[in-house]
Design goal:
Blueprint lengths: L1 H19 L7 E6 L2 E11 L2 E6 L2 E6 L5 E5 L10
Antiparallel strand pairs: 1-2, 1-5, 2-3, 3-4
Length: about 80
């Protein structure tokens, strides 16, 4: 009887975590450089360059020239702003 109640509680907790768990949206980055600002989904970093997928296409940003870098829930302006 006790094991049945524990199993039901575990099943309820599992369903609650799955249903109300963290958001599965992909992270986005807002990057500001001397050349302008860019916002999009990060694709990776290679040789000091950040590859962002924006609504305007893929953008490569040299990390040595980045003025600010912020994680955001959504981009305020579509694609590249600079």
């Amino acid at each position: 009887m006790v094991l049945t109640v524990l199993c039901a509680a575990a099943l309820t907790a599992t369903v609650a975590v799955t249903w109300y768990g963290p958001d599965k949206s992909r992270p986005q980055l807002e990057v500001v450089t001397p050349d302008g600002g860019f916002c999009g989904h990060p694709r990776g970093v290679t040789d000091g360059r950040l590859l962002l997928r924006t609504t305007a296409g893929e953008v490569t940003v040299r990390l040595e020239g980045v003025l600010t870098l912020h994680a955001v829930k959504s981009c305020s302006s579509p694609g590249a702003a600079g």
